[in-house]
Amino acid sequence: RQAAYAALKDMPARTADGVDISLMLNAGLDLDMEMMHQVGADGVGLFRTEFQFLVSETLPRVNDQIDLYKRVLDKAGGKPVVFRTVDLGGDKVLPALNLQREENPALGWRSIRFALDHKGLFRRQLRALVRAAGTRPLTVMFPMVTLPSEFEEARELLFREVDWSEKRTGLRPSKVEVGVMLETPALAYSLPELSGSAEFLSVGTNDLMQFFFAADRMTPSVSDRYNMVCPSALRFLREVSKSCRENNIRMSACGEATGTPLSALCFVALGFTTLSMSAASIGPVKQMIRSVNLEKFQKDFFAALDAPQPDFRNQVLALAADHGV
Ligand code: PEP
Ligand code: MG
């Protein structure tokens, strides 16, 4: 199997009826960048910048951040990299900041909420991203956004750094693209407000599904209890997909579910053409994509979604098998 996946490395992730899907890598270390080339990923769809914060006793200095982001962009060799700004708090506890223990950390002072309340830390990171890009394109996305106002505030801080940096250094990224992660159900109904300011949205299934099903991703007895391949979650994502199209927001997905061929197939059926996943998943997902006639599969998939059997997951599995996937 590994050999079969390796043989696919330089082949496009194109469905049997000719739809191209971008398969990107989830990364967090500059070491991961070798992997991107090894598995033939189309770029990095999620770079988890908080890793650098989590491995250190003290906060990383701006220059250390610039060095890391530069190395990542250099190693990407022109392929796109989506930097996700610090996603701290919750299950990602920062040794350098003495944070209070919370009753429900997943629902607490974390991620973009934490970043917007630690503006010094956040602005230094944004500055580092801008400086590292120099005149190259820069793509940034914000995690755990719940309200459009949080996105707007973060986006404004980013562009302020872009302007300041240009004044100081004379350099400006050739293009700045800003995206938002969809991790809370509330944001799904705010996409009209983000139209025109968010270029893309990336579904973070790990957090989104934990909030959608009200099942803690860190508690083993409930974390595996619910699966994205069920009518409620897929109907929800179908609405997200529709709203993205209506509001001219490019859509993609990251998070563990994209790496499972069956869930990836559902994403592709829902119209997602960019999926970001761990290195080991690229081969299996590419093989699945190359075997499916998407238009034909979609007809049966949407019919099943509107008339699901009690064991919907098996229904979709059987459907996939019928379609030779
Ligand atoms: C997610 O929540 O799906 C995600 C990609 O972010 P993380 O796993 O880093 O919380
Ligand atoms: Mg998340």
- The protein's oligomeric status is single chain
- How much helix is in the residues? 40-55%
Largest sheet: 8 strands, parallel
Low-confidence stretches: none
Order of helices and strands: HEHEHHEHHEHEHEHHHEHEHHH
Mean of all residue-level pLDDT scores: 96
**Helical segment tally?**
15
C-alpha Rg (nearest Å): 20 Å
How much strand content do the residues show?
5-15%
Q: How many β-strand runs? A: 8
Strand order of the largest sheet: 7-6-5-4-3-2-1-8
Salient structural properties:
binds magnesium ion, binds phosphoenolpyruvate, 325 residues, eight-stranded parallel sheet, globular, alpha/beta
Structural description of this entry:
It is a single chain. By secondary structure, the protein is an alpha/beta fold. Helix content is 48%, strand content 13%. It contains 15 helices and eight strands. It has helices spanning 2-7, 32-38, 50-54, 62-76, 111-117, 119-133, 148-169, 191-194, 205-212, 220-223, 231-246, 261-269, 279-291, 294-306, 312-322; strands spanning 22-27, 44-48, 81-84, 138-142, 176-182, 200-204, 250-254, 274-277. The chain has an eight-stranded parallel β-sheet with strand order 7-6-5-4-3-2-1-8. It is globular, with a radius of gyration of 20 Å. It binds phosphoenolpyruvate and magnesium ion (MG). Phosphoenolpyruvate (PEP) binds at residues 46, 48, 87, 183, 204-207, 254-255. GO terms for molecular function: kinase activity; metal ion binding; phosphoenolpyruvate-protein phosphotransferase activity. Belongs to the PEP-utilizing enzyme family. It is found in: Cytoplasm. It comes from Hyphomonas beringensis. This is phosphoenolpyruvate--protein phosphotransferase.
